[in-house]
Amino acid sequence: MAFDGGFLHSVTTELQQAVDCHVDKIYQPARDVLVLSLRKKGFVKRLVLSAASGTARVHFTEQKYENPDTPPMFCMLARKIFSSAKLTSVQQKGLERVIEFTFDTANEMGDRIKPKIVCELIGNSSNIILVGEDGKIYDAVHRSDIEKSDRLVMSGATYRYPESQNKINILNADPQKTAEEIMSNNAKDLSQVLLQTLEGVSPLVCREIAHQSENRPLIALMQKLKDSILSGEFVMLCKEDGAPVDFCYMPITQYGSLYTIKRFASPSALLDAFYFERENAARIHKASSDISKLVSNLLTRARRRMAVREKELEQNRDREDLRIKGELIKANLYVIEQGSATARVQNYYDENLSEIEIPLDPALSPAANAAKYFKDYKKSCGAVQSLGALIESDKEEIEYLESVSESLERSKTLADIAEIREELSLGGYIKFANKKQNRKKQQPKLTEYKSAEGYRILVGKNNMQNDYITCALASKGDMWFHTKNIHGSHVVVFCGGGPLSNETIIFAASLAAKNSKASSSSNVPVDYTPVKYVKKPVGAKAGMVIYTTNKTVFVNPYVEEAIQ
């Protein structure tokens, strides 16, 4: 990514408007992400500081981050030091990816101090470090290993800046002299020379300058680079489907028409658009990975177990043959010799009265062999009965686990993941659940819409929410929607028995289609019926219901945002 020293310079310039702000609130939504709420007269902004690998950055944000119920210790320390502190300066060290926020506040003794938050945005070594006025480190989100690191970053150590690479700062250097020094290097790959010579420029920018050097002199390009850093044009490269690929503070022409260009008014607006969805998706994936793996393993195990039982059931389908053989041995006891390995008798169950050869145990008498066949027949009958019930149980469990898997795919917040985790805990799938968390019952945050008639429409995000909406909130006259034979959400229109227009029926059905496994399909079948015809069987798993007296409508998934 092109979050280099040049882009950080643009961000630093933008952040100057936050000087003289007071720190209103401090949050830590993730281990390596800190969010500061800054406030002064006529100015309220949230500042995000991220040291996450691959997404390290600093900028203003309009996004709302989801915070944990209990603040981490690093967040508590930051609040203790910087709550109500006044931001006095924002400085970048040269064109390095290091930005320093200096504050003015009072310590516990009432003395004025000037602590700092230093953000090092250097790839996998990115860090957020709290530094005292005396240069001593309070703490850092990533502490260094004493044995493996030459630079100590931990509580009580003296803070030292990362070692400088002594490259040319294009903002302070003369463009002509810079171009001459670059040209003096006879290496064939100009982009590599630029990367090794210039401070704070990414490989993307170096390749772009090398690309443009085919038609323009290098001196002019050095001046253009300097101007772009000082007052850049903030662009994002996107694929045809709108997915972000990269960004920069200058126009990128090296890819031709391969990517589309999207322009932004400020670096913070660009970074917000580029990183938030990607970072949120990664955070959700990380939070749900253990549950997803568990559900996947449970599904594999249940399917394998059902396949074994179905095979065993198939083997017992010929159980009548055991009874017939027992009856034939019993009817021919007088002609079967003791110690025979087989008995060849006439099968009076066959209309042609054909002969049949029956295997025998020579160690048993003919009567004992007949009794053994009757015993095996009775055992087979019992197995068929129990296997049928077990296979039905396996089918129900597979259907339930598939619904959980589908809910995980549609989860968009950490709260959604927590609800699914609690659901699996209550179902006995997670052995070591957080009992304290289970005792803390909170009303789920439901997704809500409005119909054309003004009726309230609720959509469940997972099985627990489905049960809550259908079995606890809805009344008998409300209308219930669900995709036909497809895992998905329960959708309820709270109409109280009132009439629904075709527009509302299509709208609610399209919501059910969107919040289902068929969300990327078209012409999705959706069943709907009054809630009074929806029943939850005794002992059924979360989200599992049966319904009757339904109608079916075919719709396309709905994509508009819900009411917040």
Name some characteristics of this structure.
564 residues; alpha+beta; ibrinogen binding protein from staphylococcus aureus fold; 6-stranded antiparallel sheet; 13 helices; 23 strands; elongated
Radius of gyration: 35 Å
Name the structural class: alpha+beta
- Termini distance? 33 Å
How many beta strands in the DSSP annotation?
23
The mean pLDDT is 88
Strand proportion, as a percent range, falls in 15-25%
Shape: elongated
Count of domains: 4
Q: Given the structure, what is the number of helices?
A: 13
Amount of helix: 25-40%
Biggest sheet character: 6 strands, antiparallel
What is the subunit arrangement here?
Answer: single chain
- The low-confidence parts are 435-439
Topology:
Blueprint: H1 5-15, E1 22-30, E2 33-40, E3 43-50, E4 57-61, H2 73-82, E5 86-92, E6 98-106, E7 112-113, E8 116-120, E9 127-131, E10 137-140, H3 175-183, H4 190-197, H5 203-212, H6 218-230, E11 234-238, E12 244-248, E13 260-264, H7 267-315, H8 319-331, E14 342-346, E15 355-359, H9 366-410, H10 414-426, H11 435-439, E16 447-450, E17 456-459, H12 463-473, E18 479-483, E19 491-494, H13 502-514, E20 524-530, E21 534-535, E22 546-547, E23 551-555
Antiparallel strand pairs: 1-2, 2-3, 3-4, 5-6, 6-7, 6-8, 8-9, 9-10, 11-12, 11-13, 14-15, 16-17, 17-19, 18-19, 18-20, 20-23, 21-22
Helix pairs in contact: 3-6, 4-5, 7-9, 7-10, 8-9
